[in-house]
Amino acid sequence: MLDALTATATPAVHRREDYRPPAWLVPDVSLDFALDPSATRVRARLDVRRGGETGEPLRLDGDGLTPIAVLVDGVAVNDWRMENDQLVIPLSGDAHVIETEVEIAPDRNTQLMGLYSSGGNLCTQCEAEGFRRITFFPDRPDVLATYRVRMSADKARYPVLLANGDPIASGDNGDGTHWAEWHDPFPKPSYLFALVAGDLACNRGTFTTRSGREVELGIWVRAADLSKTDHALHALKLSMAWDERVYGREYDLDVFNIVAVDDFNFGAMENKGLNIFNSRYILADPDTATDYDYDAIATVVAHEYFHNWSGNRVTCRDWFQLSLKEGFTVFRDQGFSADQGSAAVKRIEDVRGLRASQFPEDAGPLAHPVRPESYLEISNFYTSTIYNKGAELIRMMATILGPTRFRAACDLYFDRFDGTAATCEDFVACMEEGGGVDLSRFRLWYSQAGTPRVAASLSHDGGRATLRLAQHVPPTPGQAVKEPMVLPLKIRLFGAETGRPLGPEQLVLLEDASETILFDGVAERPVLSINRGFSAPVTIESDRTAEELAFLARHDDDPFARYEAMQQLMLDTLVAGAVEGAADHRAVIDAVADTLDDPTLDRAFVAEAVLLPSESFIGDQLSVVDPDAIFAAREALRADLGRALGDRWREIYDANESDRPYEYTPAAKAARRIRNVALGYIAASGASDAAALAFCQFERADNMTDRQGALSVLVNGESDLREAALDIFYNRYAGNPLVLDKWFQTQALSTRVDTLAAVRALAEHPDFTLANPNRARSLIGAFAVNQRAFNQADGAGYRFLADQLIALDRLNPQTAAKLLPPLGRWRRFDPARAALMRAELERIVGTSGLSKDLFEQASKSLD
Ligand code: PHE
Ligand code: ZN
């Protein structure tokens, strides 16, 4: 009885096949905001034109809005009606002017979608469907309008008023308020609308485009943070120059503004001419940001800037095409970052990220194609599959076309679709036409989910080598049977005796379920290097021996393949350790030693190559994940590496100490990275002075990379210096939310057995709040990826996560839904853990008043 009363109606499914062009277009919009934190008035004036021959009424999306007034061609009407949240206005002619007025309350907006307040300032987030929380509008990406925006607000509280496009006029109202008007001449969908009103300081710069346009750049932050914006401004200038040089794309407005806010659901947003960023992707100085943060800032600044072409000038027809802009833009930002330092290390990091988040997604209940067929809540589809696998699809096409033809095909795409809303199919068609290739079967990558597995086996007989390849795409929800994919595999053979390549690298396009490739004139026993550069996002299952992997780890000339061989060798060893309780560590120790000793290798590469695969990636190789056995096997190998190579780690640690102040240069970064890796191995060896060494580094560090590196080592350990370091860190950064996030996160990621208890206590800490997404992610999100602590056998970790998600869902459904996937991994665990995880998912689904965001993620995770 109660159930029937409280059960919410199942949310509507949106299907790609249901796409219809808009019945009404909106060429021009004028918006007038009387801004106020508790009661903002929004008046909208829409020029509407019929889009087709239909007799459809005008349907304007709204979310939580009540019309105060509705006017058609200047006359108040009352024949409108509300259908669910849509405002429906019957119209007879083909062109009208519609005016509406609503009132909204930004300071009660905890979802951080639409107009909301953050740190006393007002800002917006409209992608994907937030504009409908601001005003009534056809809130879909294929309705492109030019926007004129007028804002008026209290002058003392909101001295800065920003919107999309170029500033047109501003003035004083004489009553303590002031106003500003902005105009964006480029037609755009509503999800790219933005405004900001606040008390902000600006780091200004200029950029002259190659055709001579002077662009005024501004990074807007609270005054106290101004000194932390130079890195972001520099990255912006580099991005603008890079897009001109590499893609021939120029900026198109007179101003480009970026605003940093502390409360933000994602990383950043590419609103036309007015990017809004999570402050963690803008603010940096050596004392508060790690090298990783510096890199991420440059990448995200570039990503949002690159969207000006791949996203804004050419946008998406509907949200099923999301990867059209996101996959392509991630591919572009990856290219940019690769050009800033070590391309090999960048590729290693990107593949590591793909394996950490996208592969598990593709193997679990939330698997979906890069171009999904349906969704309940579009916010749930801002996934690693759309972004990172989407980028791999573009990369494969670029590999197949080669650089010159790929560039020509991109030019064709931008030229043909400029000013329109396009589809993934449009993009592929341009790759075919501009590149002169047939991608008919490549399109399966957009429609089939799942990570392909490729079995590779090389044999050698009398001067001829035979490579047998067989592919299999595993079933995913709704897709039981798959067709073979088109896989571009870069391959090279090496001579086992000489260590030299036997012929050039080849690009093999595996298109069938299986294929045999012959190599003639192979006198020496060959060793197979395959999927070099990670040319296809697949899992390779080869029968290469430990000896052959160790050989490649020493001799392969492709740095990624070299890294990969080492990883596979480590993985095989760790899997054996986890399954059998012990393993022979000698091959790994020797290969690590040789890597450390090879003077020709870049230190940045060495630091990545000697790191062990993560616990979760080891788990992905097992039929049943045993988190405790994985942890034990990994710690045992770490300890052995630490002990066996103890002198080398010490040498590296000492040799890479810097006597210069912090510099963000590739060489200085590499030195810090390898020194911190060495510290980790010294601690793993159980050396009695490890904690003292870490504490000394912690105290003497002039930068966050070294300070946090040392803190992590201490936090994983048992020394008394642990609490001391945590207290010093906390007190030193008490006023800095981004650094306090690190304080929470480091503790949530601790490998200690008491981590859940510590995390529970931290959830009660006065500085903890679920209302701020960064803070919620730093504790709850980090804990949920801590393999051993989260998966403790009594299910207390699962219960804790579910409790937090139910609480967070009431404030911020999007952020709650994003943190759910670890609970959906139940199929990968033993029956006892699986049952405990399912029970928590069922508890979430059964919660009354649940958002459709969390409902979709939890209910799909049960299937
Ligand atoms: N479009 C943004 C990006 O990729 C991500 C985003 C999505 C931000 C939804 C906010 C809301 O860069
Ligand atoms: Zn993006």
From TrEMBL:
EC number: 3.4.11.2
Residue ranges annotated for the Peptidase M1 alanyl aminopeptidase Ig-like fold domain, each copy included: 450-542
Pfam families from the UniProt entry: DUF3458, DUF3458_C, Peptidase_M1, Peptidase_M1_N
Boundaries of every Peptidase M1 membrane alanine aminopeptidase domain copy: 232-442
Catalytic activity, as annotated: Release of an N-terminal amino acid, Xaa-|-Yaa- from a peptide, amide or arylamide. Xaa is preferably Ala, but may be most amino acids including Pro (slow action). When a terminal hydrophobic residue is followed by a prolyl residue, the two may be released as an intact Xaa-Pro dipeptide
Record-stated family: Belongs to the peptidase M1 family.
UniProt protein name: Aminopeptidase N
Source organism: Sphingomonas olei
